[in-house]
Amino acid sequence: LAALAEETDRGGDVVVFLRQEAEAERFREVLAEGSIASAARVRLGGLSRGFRWEEPGGGIFVSGNAALGRKRSLERVQKKRVEGRAVDTFLELEEGQHVVHVTHGIARYCGLRNIREGARQGDFLVLEFAEGVTLLVPVERIDMVQKFVGGGKKPGRLERIGSSAWSKKKARAEEALHDLASELLEVQALRAERPGYPFPQDDEAQHAFEESFPFEETGDQLETIGVIKQDMEKPKPMDRLVCGDVGYGKTELAMRAAFKVVRDGKQVAVLVPTTVLAQQHLVTFRERMAEWPIKVEALSRFLSRKEQGEVLERTASGDVNILIGTHRLLSGDVNFSDLGLIVIDEEQRFGVAHKEKLKQLRRLVDILTLTATPIPRTLHMSLVGVKDISSLHDAPEGRAPIQTEVCSFDDARFRKIVLRELNRDGQVYWLHNRVTSIEECCQRVEKLLPEAAVVVAHGQMNEHELENRMIRFIDKEANILISTTIIESGLDIPSANTLIVERADRFGLSQLHQLRGRVGRSHHKAYCYLLIPEDRPLKMDSRRRLQAIEEYSELGAGFQIAMRDLEIRGAGNILGKEQSGHIGSVGYDLFCRLLERAVADLQGVPWEEPPDVEIA
User: pLDDT at position 516, please?
Assistant: First the structure.
């Protein structure tokens, strides 16, 4: 304000841009108290940073963040939109690959041929079926051809054109898909019948809370929170799934929804898969809501039995506004005074019994589910209309791709790698997923890096000891954390930007992607080293997983990884194991197309079959 007053005293024009009317009103009051309101003008609008305009009629233009003393910790960068996809062009197909023709079944792709004779002229995809029969598909009808993604299953023999076998496979898959679509639509119908609680529209406190977010929101974040609020303001229970790559801002969306609920006098339950993540969320929620009278507690094994009892009593009486915890929140002794919202982080990590309890709750209160397992675009489109899904594609500002390397361990090289991180005041995750030998790993690291402060953490530790060690690492008293996969979900420590994973060949593809997401959460360059044994060969699936995680290291790669995971491991996490056999028989893309048709049939919406093509 002193700088603004000095500029106005010199006769300069000052324009301050603020994004919300409530914020502008508060700032006008501050200017009036400083007696510079007449010279400074407040306008609604977004300005990334201020500047001075020296030309006649110019002046100083000030961003809202600078005027309010808020600092952006990340530089704006050009955002790149990345989507998961099946086959968009023939360039993505390689000769010899198995493909699925929607009408005729599984074939082998034999390349592209240009034909300039007779009535047929142009470029054609050449597909080989059983008995050497060749089919020519015009490139403009490439939508008829799909890369074979079998959910971990290899394709059987090539289909014989004209036989009924392919029609029977499709019929069996369609029958099973009608059951799946019926189940999805039944849950939707039950929710539509039951009256929900309509939350009021945003007030000034909600605007102020959202404006206090210290980063620039992505377009996807703003769009998704808008849809979430629309759901919450409707007189029926919300049940929305938000898919987003690791570190794409799902927690901020959950906090904004939780704030809206608490402002209306209701309570929020936040369900997370691990105790460590419950503690992390407790810290995050409390810090983010520190300026408001909101009481946040966590129910976990870090609390004694007496402390748990006190939290349960306060929750039942309505004294606790937001309760965070693991599946313990689904126990019979946990009672809320007036529950309005349940936030579920990574629902696929919970067991069958827990999901049954959640299915009952879905009919009563608003549910917001967050997942970092991205749903490929084709499945996303198939489920639209039967499930409320939002996807976050845009990378947060300033985020850079994580440099990923698969290699063997070398003492001298990894001493340099760790020292490089420590010398820039950073921290290192060192993942050793064997509790029995984790102390030996610690001794090796301490011998290799005597100047480092090393701490060990794993899930079999005493609760208080584990909490103390994690806090030591978060507070930067230790700069190397040797741990098991307890760090896999949700940990957000911006200063930790090097990850070393021992025996990376033992992990799944989605798990490796989740683990890699623990680093690269600031503007610093991040590194991920996946260690493999030097003295033994890798299994084929392990080699394919490591090749994929190394290849897909760019921002938003989770969607490509989800597709590759479907190829290698299957779709059990997404659709349930009972559907994976049908994906293996007809291919993933056709499976999604049949699902769309099943949903359309049950909803009474007309469905158009794609046209057939001629055989060479």
Answer: 86
Q: Write down the pLDDT at residue 556.
A: 57
Residue 36, C-beta contacts closer than 8 angstroms, at least 6 positions apart? 1, 4, 5, 8, 14
Q: What's the CA gap between 324 and 84, in Å, rounded?
A: 32
CA 566 to chain centre: 17
Q: Which tokens is 26 given?
A: 């508060």
Q: Is the dihedral of CA 68, 70, 75, 78 positive or negative?
A: negative
Rounded CA separation 387/488 (Å): 27
CB 215 within 8 Å of CB 397: yes
- 608, two tokens: 């158009």
Instruction: Pull the structure tokens for residue 490.
Output: 């949700």
Beta bridge partners of 122: 115
Q: Are strands 14-18 and 40-44 parallel, antiparallel or unpaired?
A: parallel
Tally of CB atoms within 10 A around 486:
20
Higher pLDDT, 12 or 141: 141
Please report, as a single letter, which amino acid is at residue 445.
V
Q: Which of 133-137, 214-218, 300-304 has the highest mean pLDDT?
A: 133-137
Reported as a single tens digit per residue, the pLDDT across 201-219 is 999 999 999 988 887 888 8
Tokens of 581: 């056999």
* Average pLDDT score over residue span 372-380: 56
Can you give the length of the chain in residues?
616
In angstroms, the CA 412 to CA 114 distance is 55
Compute the distance between CA of residue 26 and CA of residue 175 in angstroms, rounded to an integer. Answer: 61
Token pair recorded at residue 339: 């529950």
Q: How far is CA 466 from CA 15, 432, 457, in A?
A: 52, 16, 6
CA 580 vs CA 173, 183, 288, 575, 577: distances in Å:
10, 17, 41, 8, 5
Kindly write down the DSSP assignment for every residue of 152-205, as one continuous string: TPPP-SPPPTT-SHHHHHHHHHHHHHHHHHHHHHHHHHHHHHS----PPPP-HH
pLDDT in tens, 496-525: 999 999 999 988 877 888 888 888 877 788
Q: Are 64 and 19 in contact (CB under 8 A)?
A: yes
> What is the radius of gyration, based on Cα positions, of the chain?
28
Residue listed under structure tokens 């696929």: 348
Are 212 and 291 a contacting pair, CB within 8 Å?
yes
Element (H, E) at 371: strand 366-371
Q: Which residues pair with 98 in a beta bridge?
A: 108
Query: pTM for this structure?
Result: 0.62
The pLDDT of residue 87: 46
Non-local CB neighbours of 474 within 8 Å, separated by 6+ positions:
283, 493
Distance between CA atoms of residues 131 and 108, nearest Å: 12
DSSP secondary structure letter of residue 487: G
